[in-house]
Each structure stands twice: as structure tokens, then as C-alpha cells.
Automatic annotation (TrEMBL), chain A:
The keyword Membrane applies. Residues 49-159, 175-253 form the Cytochrome c domain. This is Cytochrome bc1 complex cytochrome c subunit. Heme c 1 binds at residues 62, 65-66. It catalyses: a quinol + 2 Fe(III)-[cytochrome c](out) = a quinone + 2 Fe(II)-[cytochrome c](out) + 2 H(+)(out). GO terms for molecular function: heme binding; iron ion binding; quinol-cytochrome-c reductase activity. It comes from Actinomadura livida. Keywords: Cell membrane, Electron transport, Heme, Iron, Membrane, Metal-binding, Repeat, Respiratory chain, Translocase, Transmembrane, Transmembrane helix, Transport. The keyword DNA-binding does not apply. It is a multi-pass membrane protein. The cytochrome bc1 complex is composed of a cytochrome b (QcrB), the Rieske iron-sulfur protein (QcrA) and a diheme cytochrome c (QcrC) subunit.
Automatic annotation (TrEMBL), chain B:
InterPro entries: Cyt_b/b6_C_sf (IPR036150), Cyt_b/b6_N (IPR005797), Cytb/b6-like_sf (IPR027387), Di-haem_cyt_TM (IPR016174). PANTHER family: CYTOCHROME B (PTHR19271). GO terms for cellular component: plasma membrane. This is Cytochrome bc1 complex cytochrome b subunit. Its EC number is 7.1.1.8. Keywords: Cell membrane, Electron transport, Heme, Iron, Membrane, Metal-binding, Respiratory chain, Translocase, Transmembrane, Transmembrane helix, Transport. The keyword Metal-binding applies. The lineage of its organism: Bacteria, Bacillati, Actinomycetota, Actinomycetes, Streptosporangiales. Its cofactor is heme.
Length: 301, 547
């Protein structure tokens, strides 16, 4: 107790308390802030889809909002609650379900990306050492992949629409990166920022960060225009253009920062913050240290 | 002011002898090398600016060896694969060349940019220190104005430098510059055409900005830095109100050898920090932004921090415009471009003179005020900081909305409201805090400071023993001047003083300046001031404290 009393009267005690409080706030914030998990590219096992299973999955997971016949629902005032799924196509279903956006948890300005529900989670971990667990996980993954294929095939039968692109169309290796960069800056950067960091939109909506989006999902998003995103059909951006954009995004997000820490790649805001807090902070500490040095021999004059 | 004279150290004598035998100026050097400088960490803030300016000059020269200020279109074939085969201006291509193909080029670019960030940041911090300690008062008003001019030139210099690489981010900044030029009534389009030499962006703008950036503005800055330092040297540095320091005498270390060593070491610190930043923190990655294309834009396009408050005012401004007689007046661009800048810069420029006029203080000041001892000045300073700060943060509103999951509209409206409310609140709160601190000081002088020793009285009452403040602390506490009472409205014969409307305004402002002032004076034998007495004797606890 005595030591604490002596300690808290030190000149730096106030700064230490402020620093500790700031650190505590940071830790608490980090604990509460939402975390996004990276979704892995899913390998679509090619098998004949089971439409009956698709209908069952639809009834269980989607019909409560989209209606028993996928016709969409409206509230008492006639405002749409959920859109009709007739004609949205398999690509749209695949995008919404594998990014975890659908089934949605709660309505809001925008449905966020999240971990897909277990039925559709095609990105679960299977590399367990225990053969029993590994087998179980692999079975679950196969089941989830089959479920997604069945569901999207079922929706496709309702009224057609864009199909899921083949793996060759989304392969980043086959795209022209320079062209992709140009197209990205003209068509995508105004919402998603220079390298896909994401950005704010009006009315609480936002363009999400593109760091954990798989090439297939990118292609599907351009093709179907989910939520606030416009549709880039094959006459606006040809399949070659789409592949170029995918190639650019994958390339740039895997590219290391040659200049050191990238500071989130969000431009001058984080640069200014670091300059003021760290740069000026260090120099102020240096100034305090230099000022505190008193030469012993020299008399003050 | 005068300095106590002591014999200069031997090392000085030797050097001076050498110089004197050749230039015959020993008296001048002898007098100046032992010039005394007061010590306080906040006096080093201005030096950060000086030294980062030197770093800027050195790294800037390196960059000019390879940078090509040309808008000529070329196809990139350098080593950055993501842009190979893309058509771009020669300016952008040469910036990529510096970044990826010149040895040390990226490091130099990054040091240059970080030094610019620190240059402007330290100027602002230094100005805040000068403002809040009242160091701009007579006789230093001119140096304050020179400082403001350098800050303004620094903003321009930064904007021009940021525009040179002709990447997508800086091109967006130039596009806004063009919009601001065009929004000026009557002459706007002429200014725009004169500046850009044709339709935006044109071929001329980058070479023109380059000349201004590497030649004209640095030369002006260098001249002003010299004037700033010479005036400071001549007038001597202000000092904090510590023991031994007075209006007549500077208390500190001589320039040679102590202060020279300190400031030399500090230069190395500044160089070290900018070099570390250049090596470890990526800044302005133009290769990620891509070449400028008037048809493209990105979200999260912000200027460097010192332009942030202008960006913010542009972002929160409602879309107002007036269309009359076939002309459009874009208030939504004109007002945010000119008004906040005008308020901040004009306000800062006239403030020393306004303050002297209001307080009627025509004396020379060499000892700084503690911020609490000039509550109105401190409160106005905090109101200005709030005004600037809110606009500055508003410049990053989309980043804030995106990172903290807030609605963009909510941020815009928050800043629109706090733009008006924030400075007023800051004024009121700061003034009350200052007066509270004055009361605490008066208490410390009258009753001493808390000793941390709890004593129990015979009746079983606990109280903390107070001890008189130490001499050094007492000196600081007593540095406050009691506000002078305003000149009486009527003279001895009861005749009202002859005052025009301006005179009345001045007396009212003067009253506001001195309102609630708490006199801090030593009283013999720990007695109380008249006003304090009642309040203190009302409580038994304080009586215990006197023992």
C-alpha cells in the first residue's frame, strides 16, 4: 500500500495511468470487435444435383423469408422483406450462401459476410491428425458441398439465371493483371478503394473488404450484383475482363509491401495518424530526454 | 534583457582566436556563442521543423536526379509487373522507376514524405506551444506572423509535392484544386486556365508545380526560416516561469558548448526517426494507386494530413449553389475552401494584436504564461483546436464509417452539428478548467500542498497535513499576475469617460478577459485573502489542514 502511495505521486504516474487505461480500452475493443474468418476456395464436387434435397434445404433455410414458392415476401405495408428468387440463378445462390450472407441473421442496412451455417459451410478445416475426426470433417465438408450444389440447382430450375462460372473462368493465373488494374480503378475502386480495402456507402451500407473473397465469389458478385453492388454483365465486363480483375485483386493482395509496414493500405489517414502519434511522439520523448540532461560541471549562467 | 557574463571556455577562445585573426569579429562571435538558451522540452518542437526541413532538402535533391516532371504519355516497362504495358505519364513512370529501379530510391521517397508529414506536424505543435504560453506577445508578434507564413507555404509546398507523381490519388487532389479555382466568382475560370494552361489536367500542370515545389517555395521557406531564427536569436528565446528566470534575465545554458551539443544531438534524432520511418513504414505507395485517369476515382481518397481540415469542410458542406443570369456560384465548394482557412489563418494572424488591444498590455514579455493563467486565451485556443480538429477528422469520415461500422450519414451530421457546437463547448469547458486550476493554485499558495500524511485529531477526526510548497514550485505558482482592474467608467468627479462604440466594446471585452480571475498571492503567516476566509472557516476539515 505504501509503495503504491509513493508510486502514484511520481511525476510520470499520471501518464502511466492514462497509458494503461488506453491499453485496456484497446484490449476490450479488440475483444468485442467483430472478426471475419477467411473462407477457403471450395472445390465443387461434380455430381448430379439432388433437386429434392435442394427443395428441402430451401424450405428449411430460406422459405421463411423468401416464401414457400420463392416468390418473395412483403410486410403489412407492402414493403419487401425478401426478394423473389425466381430467376436469380445458381451464381447468386452460391455467392450468398458460401459467403455466409444467407441465411441472414437479422435485417439491417446490409447483410454482412459471416461464417456460413454448418449445413452450407464449405470452408471447414479437415486437416486433423486424428483419423476419426478427419474422416468426420471430410464427410461433413462433402455434405456441405453437396447441399450448396443441390440448393443452387433447385433455384436454377425455378426460372434460370446466371450459372456458377467454371473454374477455368475464374483462374487468376489466366488473367491480364495490368488490364485488371485499369478496369478495377475505373469500375470498382470508387467503392472498394484502390486495392479492395472496402469503403463506406450511403445509408449505413458499405462496400466490403475484398481480402477473403475467393475468385469464384468475385466472379459471381460481378455477375449478380449482390446488395448495393451493381451488376456487371458480360457486355459491360466480358468474361476476359472479369478474369483480369480477379487476377489483379488476387495479385495485389498477395503482393508484399516493399516500403515496410503497409499501415492498412488505406492511404494518408493512417499515415497522418502514425506520423503524429508515433513520429512526433518519439521526437517529443527525445526532446524530454535531451532537456533532462543537465551538464554537471558547467555553471548555469 | 542582459546575460550574466562569464569567461568563455578555452575551446571557444581558441576557435575565436583563429576566426578573429582572419575576420576580426571576435566580439561578435564571442558574444553570440555563449548566448543563453532556456531549457524546456517544448522549446524543441520548432527544431523538429527546422531539422526535418533539412532532411527534406537533402532527400528532395536526391529525388530530382531521377524524377521527370513531364505529362508525356509513355508505356511502362519497368520492374513492377502489375503495371507493365499500362500507358501513363512520364512523371508517374519516373516515380515508379525511383521506387523500384533506383538504388535507395524508395527509401529516399519515403524519408522525404515522412519528413514532410513531421515538418508540418511539428510546425503546428510548435505554434500551439507558442500560442498557449503567450510567447507571441510583444515583442515577438512579427515572428509569429513569419511562422504563420511558413505554415501556409508548407501547406502549399506539401500539396504541390503530393501532386507531382501524377498517380490516381494525387490527381484526385488536383481535380479538387481545379474545382476550388473554378468556384471563385468572376475570375475562377481564368485562374483555372492560367494555372493548368488548358483543359484539366493538361500538359503544363506537373512541370509548373515542379518548379514551384523545388525552387520557389523552398527558397521562400529558407529565407523565412533564416529571418525567424535571426529574430529569435536577437530577441532571445522566451522562457518558462521558473526560479531564477525573470523578465530581465534569461536563465539557461550557453549556446556553446551545452546547447549546441543538445541541438546537434536533436538533429540526429530527427534524422534517425525519419530514416526509421522511411525504412519501416510504407507511405504513399503510388504503385498501388495506379496512374491518374480522369475517369477513375477511389473511395478513401484523402490528402495528406495538413490538407485534411479543408477536405473535411468540403465533405460536410451541404450542396448549395446559386444559379443566376446564366452563372453558377458553387457555394458548396467556395465556402468550405475559403471560410475555415480564413477563420483559422486570419484569426491566428490578428490575435496577438487583438489581445494587446483588449488587455491594454503594451509591455515587453519574455517569460511565458502558464495556460491556466490566461483563461480566455487558453479557451479561445482550445475552441480553435476543436474547430480545426473536427474538420480534420471529418476529412476522414468515410474511413471512420468503414472502420468503425458507423453510418456515413451519421458521421456527416455529427460533424455538421459539432462544427457549431464543439468550439463553444470547448471554450466554456476550458475556461472553467483554467479557473479551477487557478483556485487550486491559490489554495496551494495559501494552505500548502497535500503531504500524503493523514493525522488523527484527539476527537478522532482524520485530516491530511498540508505543507508549504517547495520554493521552486512556489515560484511557478506565483508567476501569475493578478488581472488589473478595468479603468473606472467615471473619473473622481463622477464624469463618464469619453468613449465611442469601439471604446465600449473594448471595455466589455476587457471585463470578459479579467472576469473570474483568481488572485494568487502570498499572504503573511499563512493568512487568508478576504474572500477565501469565509468559505474555509465554514468547514472544520480545512481548519485541521492549517496545522
Amino acid at each position: 500500500m505504501k509503495r503504491i502511495t509513493a508510486w502514484r505521486r511520481r511525476p510520470w504516474a499520471g501518464y502511466a495511468v492514462v497509458l494503461a487505461a488506453l491499453a485496456a480500452i484497446g484490449v476490450v475493443y479488440a475483444g468485442f470487435s467483430p472478426q471475419t474468418d477467411r473462407a477457403e476456395a471450395h472445390s465443387s464436387a461434380q455430381a448430379a444435383p439432388d433437386l429434392e434435397n435442394g427443395r428441402e434445404l430451401f424450405n428449411k433455410n430460406c422459405a421463411s423469408c423468401h416464401g414457400l414458392n420463392a416468390e418473395g415476401t412483403k410486410d403489412a405495408d407492402g414493403n419487401p422483406i425478401a426478394p423473389s428468387l425466381i430467376g436469380v440463378g445458381a451464381a447468386s445462390v452460391d455467392f450468398q450462401v458460401t459467403t455466409g450472407r444467407m441465411p441472414a441473421m437479422n435485417p439491417g442496412a446490409q447483410v454482412p459476410r459471416k461464417e456460413p451455417i454448418p449445413t452450407f459451410n464449405t470452408s471447414i478445416k479437415t486437416d486433423y491428425d486424428d483419423p476419426e475426426r478427419r474422416k468426420q470433417a471430410e464427410e461433413q465438408l462433402a455434405k456441405a458441398q453437396k447441399n450448396v450444389i443441390d440448393l443452387r440447382a433447385f433455384i436454377q430450375t425455378l426460372g434460370g439465371g446466371p450459372e456458377v462460372p467454371p473454374a477455368s473462368a475464374v483462374d487468376p493465373e489466366g488473367g491480364d493483371v495490368a488490364l485488371g488494374g485499369k478496369l478495377f480503378r475505373t469500375n470498382c475502386a470508387q467503392c472498394h478503394s484502390f486495392t479492395g480495402q472496402g469503403g463506406a456507402l450511403t445509408g449505413g451500407k458499405y462496400a466490403p473488404d475484398l481480402h477473403d473473397v475467393t475468385p469464384t465469389q468475385m466472379y459471381e458478385a460481378m455477375l449478380t450484383g449482390p446488395q448495393a453492388m451493381p451488376v456487371f454483365n458480360d457486355s459491360t465486363l466480358t468474361p476476359k475482363d472479369k478474369q483480369a480483375i480477379i487476377a489483379y485483386l488476387v495479385n495485389v493482395r498477395e503482393e508484399p509491401n516493399p516500403g515496410g509496414n503497409g499501415l492498412g493500405r488505406i492511404g494518408p489517414v493512417s499515415e497522418g495518424l502514425v506520423g503524429w502519434l508515433v513520429g512526433l511522439g518519439l521526437l517529443v520523448l527525445a526532446a524530454m530526454w535531451i532537456t533532462a540532461k543537465k551538464p554537471k560541471k558547467l555553471k548555469k549562467s | 534583457m542582459s546575460e550574466t557574463t562569464t569567461a568563455p571556455p578555452k575551446a571557444v577562445e581558441g576557435t575565436l582566436g583563429f576566426v578573429d585573426e582572419r575576420l576580426g569579429s571576435t566580439t561578435f562571435f564571442g558574444r553570440n556563442v555563449k548566448k543563453v538558451f532556456p531549457d524546456h522540452w517544448s522549446f524543441m518542437l520548432g527544431e523538429i521543423a527546422l531539422y526535418s526541413f533539412i532532411v527534406l532538402l537533402l532527400t528532395g535533391v536526391y529525388l530530382t536526379f531521377w524524377f521527370k516532371p513531364s505529362m508525356l504519355e509513355v508505356v511502362y516497362d519497368g520492374s513492377y509487373t502489375n503495371l507493365q504495358g499500362v500507358a501513363m505519364s512520364e512523371a508517374y513512370a519516373s516515380t515508379l522507376h525511383i521506387s523500384f529501379d533506383v538504388r535507395g530510391g524508395l527509401l529516399m521517397r519515403q524519408i522525404h514524405h515522412w519528413a514532410a508529414i513531421l515538418f508540418m506536424a511539428s510546425i503546428l505543435a510548435h505554434m500551439l506551444r507558442v500560442f498557449f504560453t503567450g510567447a507571441y506577445r510583444k515583442p515577438r508578434e512579427l515572428n509569429w506572423l513569419i511562422g504563420l507564413a511558413m505554415f501556409t507555404l508548407g501547406i502549399l509546398e506539401g500539396l504541390f509535392g503530393y501532386s507531382l507523381p501524377d498517380d490516381l490519388l494525387s490527381g484526385t487532389g488536383l481535380r479538387i484544386t481545379q474545382g476550388v479555382a473554378e468556384s471563385i466568382p468572376v475570375v475562377g475560370t481564368y485562374i483555372y486556365m492560367f494555372l493548368f494552361g488548358g483543359e484539366f489536367p493538361g500538359q503544363d500542370i506537373v512541370p509548373r508545380l515542379y518548379m514551384l515545389h523545388i525552387l520557389l517555395i523552398p527558397a521562400l521557406l529558407l529565407a523565412l526560416v533564416t529571418a525567424h531564427l535571426m529574430i529569435m536569436w536577437h530577441q532571445k528565446h522566451t522562457a518558462m516561469p521558473v526560479k531564477h528566470q525573470s523578465e530581465k534575465q534569461v536563465y539557461g545554458y550557453p549556446f556553446y558548448p551545452v546547447f549546441m551539443a543538445k541541438t546537434g544531438a536533436y538533429f540526429l534524432f530527427v534524422f534517425g526517426v525519419t530514416a526509421l520511418f522511411g525504412a519501416f513504414f510504407q507511405i504513399n505507395p503510388v504503385w498501388l494507386y495506379g496512374p491518374y485517369d480522369p475517369g477513375a476515382i477511389s473511395s478513401g481518397s484523402q490528402p495528406d494530413w495538413y490538407m485534411g481540415f479543408l477536405e473535411g469542410s468540403l465533405r460536410i458542406m451541404p450542396a448549395w449553389e446559386i444559379n443566376a443570369w446564366g452563372h453558377t456560384l458553387s457555394l458548396s465548394v467556395l465556402i468550405p475552401a475559403l471560410l475555415p482557412l480564413g477563420i483559422i489563418m486570419t484569426g491566428a494572424a490578428v490575435w496577438p494584436f487583438v489581445e494587446a488591444w483588449v488587455t491594454g498590455d503594451k509591455r515587453q514579455h519574455h517569460v511565458n504564461d502558464r495556460p491556466r493563467n490566461a483563461p480566455v486565451r487558453t479557451a479561445i485556443g482550445m475552441a480553435a483546436v476543436t474547430f480545426y480538429g473536427l474538420l480534420w477528422i471529418a476529412g476522414a469520415n468515410d474511413i471512420l464509417a468503414e472502420r468503425f461500422h458507423i453510418s456515413l450519414f451519421a458521421t456527416t451530421w455529427f460533424f455538421r452539428v459539432t462544427f457549431f457546437v464543439g468550439p463553444v463547448l470547448a471554450y466554456i469547458i476550458t475556461k472553467r478548467i483554467c479557473i479551477g486550476l487557478q483556485r487550486k493554485d491559490a489554495e496551494s499558495v495559501a494552505h500548502g500542498v497535500e503531504s500524503g500524511v493523514i493525522v488523527m485529531s484527539p476527537e478522532g477526526r482524520f485530516s491530511e497535513r498540508h505543507e508549504p510548497a517547495r520554493e521552486a514550485e512556489m515560484h511557478v505558482l506565483l508567476s501569475k499576475e493578478t488581472a488589473l482592474p478595468a479603468a473606472p467608467d467615471r473619473d473622481a468627479a463622477g464624469i463618464p469617460a469619453a468613449k465611442g462604440p469601439v471604446g465600449h466594446l473594448r471595455s466589455r471585452l476587457n471585463r470578459a478577459w479579467t472576469l473570474d480571475d483568481i488572485p494568487i498571492e502570498e499572504h503573511g503567516n499563512g493568512g487568508h485573502g478576504e474572500g477565501e476566509q469565509k468559505a474555509i472557516e465554514g468547514s472544520g476539515e480545512s481548519r485541521e489542514a492549517k496545522r
